[in-house]
Amino acid sequence: MQSDEGTTSTSGAAAPDRAPGGSPHQGRRGFDVLFLLQQFSTEAERYADQVRRGFGLAHKDVHALNEVMQANRAGRPIRAGDIARRLVLSGSATTTVIKRLVAAGHLVRTVDPRDRREVSLRATEHAYRSGRRMFSAMGEEVLAVLDDCTDEEIEVLRRRLPQLTDAVRRAGRRAGESGAADGAAAEDGTAPAGPGAAPRPAERR
């Protein structure tokens, strides 16, 4: 979901309306790029939703499998608790997802040789083959666009995309902390204040 409606800027890129009540970031350099990135993310998510059904995978299955594959490629252990934190799932929901992926042959549980009490997760060759089949069409289309980029443009993307990914990760942590604070305020009988709004006093019980 995009955070605001877009119009067309003089550069031809999608730019948000400057209506009252819009984003406080309106007017900042690169603000229209934020919306272009949102559109890319939305379409990539739609693509993943389309293809996962053909492989009998649930929405959370794909995300959990992706987390395991990224950890495996980086050579770091990943456990059920890591999946729960990254996907914001309960322990029981995480167990259900992992059991489903193990039963489908996408994951295996392995004992950590450094601590035999710990069980790590590893993606199987079957999972990698399925992933290649699932995302081959998207890879072909995106790489066709990148083929037209100059070396300098590719280098900018290679340098900036990880930074943007980290920025979204930090935003997620901030949102989680804000949500926890808002939940505590609701328990206390107060409503979270919006920008420029005065906090509402707690109702008497």
Polypeptide structure, described:
- This protein is mainly alpha-helical and 205 residues long.
- The chain is 59% helix and 10% strand.
- The protein is built from 6 helices and 4 strands.
- It has helices spanning 31-54, 59-74, 80-87, 91-103, 125-147, 151-187; strands spanning 6-8, 14-16, 107-112, 115-123.
- The strands form 2 sheets. A two-stranded antiparallel sheet has the order 1-2. Strands 3-4 form a two-stranded antiparallel sheet.
- Strand 1 and strand 2 (14-16) form a beta hairpin.
- Helix 2 crosses helix 4.
- The longest helix is centred in the C-terminal third of the chain and has 37 residues, at 151-187.
What's this model, at a glance?
By secondary structure, the chain is mainly alpha-helical. Helices cover 59% and strands 10% of the residues.
**Largest beta-sheet characterization:** 2 strands, antiparallel
Record the strand order, biggest sheet. 1-2
Radius of gyration: 21 Å
- Helix/strand-derived class? mainly alpha
Order of helices and strands: EEHHHHEEHH
> How much helix is in the residues?
55-70%
Distance between the termini: 38 Å
The average pLDDT value, as a whole number, equals 81
Count of DSSP H/I helices: 6
Low-confidence stretches: 1-16, 191-205
Beta-strand content estimate: 5-15%
The shape is globular
